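Continuing the series of single-chain predictions for the mutant panel. This is the parent chain; the variants come on the following pages.
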Amino acid sequence: MGKLISWVAVLLLLVVVPIGSWVYLNKGLNYRKAALAELIPKDSISANLDTLDLLKGKVSLIILENSKTAEIVKALEDQFNNSQGFQIIYKDSMVGNSFLPNSYLGDFFNKEDDFSFALLDERMRVRNYYKNDIESVRKMVEHIAIVIPRPKETDIVQKNNK
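Parent structure:
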């Protein structure tokens, strides 16, 4: 009976655990590929239009509609406040700390009237537009987490004792 338990344990460790791990990791890979497919750049802002360099080098969430988004924006600020390289900017408003001046970037965002948010990457490419409903906000949070650049990890440096 003891040998049977040992063989079952070895079989679990050599076959079942690796297959389960592969299935789990493959599911995560497929999820990430689908999310990246949704984040294909839709449009791009010319560097000439961003004369104040408000958007260059940072992932930006542009708030296109201020009236119904205050609660969502507060939750996003709480969640991503420690993220380097991420900013929330209001369009044509002085509601928040950061805002785009009136008629800044021309009429670039005026063509998207039915959306409340626009996500831009650090190269000023519009990754996606989002509405003000629960499902869109959930997608937006996932997409922000994917687009924000990861912080540089410090390298291990060996000290030479001389």
